[in-house]
Design goal:
about 190 residues, mainly alpha, 5 helices, disordered N terminus, DUF4913 domain-containing protein
Length: about 190
């Protein structure tokens, strides 16, 4: 099976400053509803900002691990923190908004530590977050640590797979709509 197209990213582009890559006002991102193209842009922008954040604040992997993007609990927290940062530092914002962001950032770091500890991602290894089975559910699949030697390569492969999955879903929806439109009788012009 051929590899999906990879964005032409080099390490410098992934490490640039925190500014938004997308020319639109800040808004919360519902990762469940993004189209393939929206997701690709959002992933790249968030990755750029997380790199800036970890370098600027000297965050250890116990707070922001290299493989944060593989864990929805970390993705949602970092995405919310990013949106909050964009709003706090918007030129139209109140002058005290940045201190509010820093107060909320302190709270978020505590949550991030808890989730990193629970999910088991580490500096050079990752595994899916363990799930607790409720009564009546089958046993959870075994989870093993996987060594990932190049974080940036893994990130590109991960987002390409996510974008491809979203495209397949979009294509299926459009095909179903087209099939439905083709079989729906049209009202007569009488």
């Amino acid at each position: 099976m051929p590899e999906p197209d990879e964005p032409d990213l080099d390490e410098d582009e992934m490490m640039e400053g925190p500014g938004p890559a997308l020319p639109e006002p800040p808004h919360p991102i519902n990762w469940n509803l993004l189209t393939a193209d929206e997701a690709e842009g959002a992933w790249l922008e968030l990755n750029q900002w997380v790199n800036w954040l970890r370098h600027t604040y000297g965050l250890p992997p116990a707070v922001v691990p290299p493989f944060w993007y593989r864990h929805p609990e970390l993705l949602w927290e970092l995405s919310a923190l990013h949106t909050h940062w964009l709003c706090a530092y918007d030129p139209e914002q109140n002058g005290s908004a940045p201190i509010g962001w820093h107060r909320d950032f302190a709270d978020a770091r505590g949550r991030l530590r808890d989730w990193v500890a629970a999910c088991g991602t580490r500096l050079e290894t990752d595994r899916p977050t363990r799930q607790t089975c409720w009564p009546g559910e089958g046993p959870a699949p075994a989870v093993d640590d996987v060594r990932i030697p190049d974080r940036d390569v893994d990130f590109v492969h991960f987002i390409n797979a996510d974008v491809a999955r979203r495209r397949r879903v979009q294509d299926e929806v459009y095909a179903a709509l087209a099939a439905d439109a083709a079989t729906t009788p049209r009202p007569s012009d009488d």
